[in-house]
Amino acid sequence: MKVTISGGVHGNELTGVYIVKKLMHDDFQVKNLQLDFLLANPKAIKECRRYVDKDLNRSFSKDALQSDEPIYEYERAKVITQKLQDCDFLIDLHTTTANMGITIVLSNQDSLSENVAKILASEYENVRILQWLSNDEGAFINSIVPSSITIEVGPVCQGVLDANLYFQTLKVVKRAIDILEKEEALQEKVQAFRIYDAIDFPRKDRDLNGMIHPELAGKDYQLLHPGDPIFLTFDEREIFYEGKEAYPVFINEAAYYEKGMAFCLSESIFL
Ligand SMILES: [Zn+2]
User: Fold this and answer.
1) How far is the CA of 13 from the centre of ligand 1 (A)?
2) Between the chain's N and C termini, which has fewer beta carbons within 10 Å?
3) Rounded to an integer, what distance in angstroms lies between the CA atom of residue 238 and that of residue 246?
4) What is the CATH number of the domain that holds 69?
5) Three-state secondary structure along 91-157?
6) Which domain range does residue 72 map to?
7) 213 DSSP assignment
8) CB 222 within 8 A of CB 247
9) What is the pLDDT of residue 146?
10) Residue 37 — very low, low, confident or very high, per pLDDT cuts 50/70/90?
11) Cα of 230 to ligand 1 centre, how many Å?
């Protein structure tokens, strides 16, 4: 089985970049797998920014892969698609500014991906599973491989390393490889979360007109009830949640301001 570990799909998410660099430098290999490493967006990594022209992790749709537009990330997406042609399992490393601990994002709905995520979540207290299957903007890198997990760790600022999170993430990556190598399986159901919607900031003429309410800040994966405060406008008016009970995630994620997402709503499921 060929397993690829990728970092730097977003150039300012340094944990993944430096884990991939370390594993490459150590020439980390295991017996029964073929391990390969990928620094996905070299220009963005060099400039320590999320992307150069467009978000690379929204550049793997059919349209983007067939596009002739001179967009750096579209060119990278084509190169990466070639490189990952024979990849069986992708471990893609990201960070978030939200308080999400170690979140295993599942974008592939197959038993191998789910099995690895379930074993990790059952073994580590701060590891959670988040299913995120679709997005309106264009496909994730996961869409070009049969199986994958995306590891999102936070809270950590863009362009910043956190030693604790770095080593926790490295431990989880090595355990994921171990699970694949030993072909371990877990039959029991494990709690997970599934994103079903996203909420935008309050806006006035499309510009921001408020911030995440201090009472919601940092409360990722904590049950949100109708009537709970979610935003505070610039004139200190509170805005309250009106939907059904949900588990908010990616609260105040820096990269999602431009996507019109203040936080996402998820529901509890069992995988
Ligand atoms: Zn990312």
Assistant:
1) 6
2) N
3) 19
4) 3.40.630.10
5) EEEEECCCCCEEEEEECCCCHHHHHHHHHHHHHCCCEEEEECCCCCCCCCHHHHCCEEEEEEEECCC
6) 2-188
7) -
8) yes
9) 95
10) very high
11) 24
Interval 54-83: pLDDT, tens: 999 999 999 999 999 999 999 999 999 999
What's residue 136's pLDDT? 53
Helix (H) or strand (E) holding 175: helix 163-182
Assign 56 to helix, strand or coil.
helix
> Cis peptide leading into 214, omega within 30 of 0?
no
* Domain total in the chain: 2
Say yes or no: 232 and 260 in one domain.
yes
In the structure encoding, which two tokens stand for residue 40, read together?
A: 């996905």
Q: What is the mean pLDDT of the chain?
A: 96
* Interval 146-183: pLDDT, tens: 999 999 999 999 999 999 999 999 999 999 999 999 99
Strands 207-208 and 210-212, how do they pair? unpaired
Q: How far is the CA of 14 from the centre of ligand 1 (A)?
A: 10
The backbone region for 212, taken as left when phi is positive above 0, alpha when psi lies in -120 to 50, beta otherwise, is: beta
The answer to whether the beta carbons of residues 111 and 184 sit under 8 Å apart is no
Q: Nearest 5 degrees, angle CA 11-CA 12-CA 18?
A: 80
* Rounded distance from Cα 271 to ligand 1 centre (Å): 24
177-222 pLDDT, tens digit per residue, is: 999 999 999 999 999 999 999 999 999 999 999 999 999 999 999 9
- In angstroms, what is the span from residue 237 Cα to ligand 1's centroid? 32
Q: Is 271 domain-assigned?
A: no
